[in-house]
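hey all, quick one before standup. I had two proteins in the batch that finished overnight and I want to keep them in one place so we stop losing track of which output belongs to which input. First protein below, input sequence then structure tokens straight from the run.
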Amino acid sequence: MIDQTTFDTLKEKAATFRYSSFEWLEYESVADYAVLEDSPERIVLRGRKKLTEINELQWAADEPDSVIRTAKAQGVETLVTFVPEEWKARFLDAGFSEYGMLREYWVCPLKNAYTPKTVCMPIAPDECAEAASVTQSCRMQSREFYGESEESVRAWISGNDPDAQAGGARHEAVLAFRLNGAIAGVVCTAVYGYESMKGPIAWIREVAVRPEYQGRGVGCALIESALQYGIERGAVCSFLMADDCNAGAIALYKKIGFEPNDELQIDLCFAPLKN
């Protein structure tokens, strides 16, 4: 277990290294992790990634080889997130494989208004379980999409999600597309960056449509509803992330107006050969 003070100290030290996975890391995500190493050469935390139950390293270092050796020494499938692009080839040569290639997509500026064919409205607290089940029905349709638990959905709409709090998000909501009284799709959204020079940003955090309703315009209605939700709360731009392999979703995002930028989160995994 790591206490808050230890985590804060390690995060501050991690910023002195050339590369680190700590920049967007919050204490709640690693509170039950162990400090594997804290030295002038590297910082390494080890734990089990929530929702996936995969071994994960959070790290800070100036060169790749020590991180590679540490990951391979675990003896189990181990995830290393936020690998620098210039290190990727070295990791792949060492036996790692792609776990996810998450790229930023932006609409900036937003249009004055979006008019989805079906306006999607926020869920009520008693719909958290149903909304979570929608996300679970799409689990792993894209790499690193694991779905949400009822508790995580409830935390989001109540303003208690650690990532939302850390990012200064406001107006957190889960919008739902309803068919015949049931939820067919959801999008988690919020607005952040009220103090930034760019201006407030509509955050499209997660889009999920039950498999039997995919390809019917539900995803488009959800995203356009989220954009309009953000505009009504002051957003002038919008942001989401998508895996490079998720061609269908990326085509939809581009159709709506999202464009990729150069920011790429590279997550790589090492799986030891089984005897």
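OK second protein, same deal, sequence then tokens:
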Amino acid sequence: MLLCQNQIKNAQEPAPDRKWLCVELPVTEYKEAWHLQSNLVAAKYHKTIQENVVLLLEHPPVFTLGRRGGLNNLRVSENFLEKAVIPVIQVERGGNITFHGPGQLVVYPIIHLQAAKLSVVRYVENLEEVMIRTAADWGITAVRNPLNRGVWVGNKKLGSIGIAIRRGICFHGMALNVNTSLEPFQWITPCGLENTEITSMELERSGNVSMKQVRKRVKHHLKAVFDITLIMTRLEKLKINESKPDT
């Protein structure tokens, strides 16, 4: 039986939940990106955006505290951080305290887990797999640890995961240390874990690692691991209602 032209076209196109809009951003203030995520969650919930969305970006230096985070894991004084011009921000993601800064690739997928047919555990494992495969592209063997989420090179943490779910929509995401300064991690108890070292791809590689190339490979692995099509777009093309953020 011959398929009509429309049937062939529909068979070739991925289902709506398999298409993710991808926005690459420059270094973006944490609160600005946080506000953007909240508006995207609202847009997904109110169905003004049908597709899942993923943001790729870097942050200026900032410490964030997850739901289990507390200032007790900060090893320096707040006065020290004020002089260093590094804010500390409490957010709703899971996990404890962590550091974000230039040279760390942050990936924020805003997706409806049920529509994507993903459990929370499977979703987290997929994010870990993206980081593991990306590290392997540079000859770095990273592994997951079910007791301490993220990816590790030996006993050194290379990438972190912290997510939140609002009305079935997942946001926040993962942070992979590419060539970021590791000094600020010495000012905290990372993720609340004592005797935990932090590493970067550049440190493990003992040489330069291009952020541009890492972004490219992360997008490649997102497509493969989540079995999706990434559609590159610009922020201004997304239908975000600034007056109706989800709270």
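Flagging for whoever picks this up: Confidence is low (pLDDT under 50) at residues 7-12, 243-247. The chain has one domain: 15-236.
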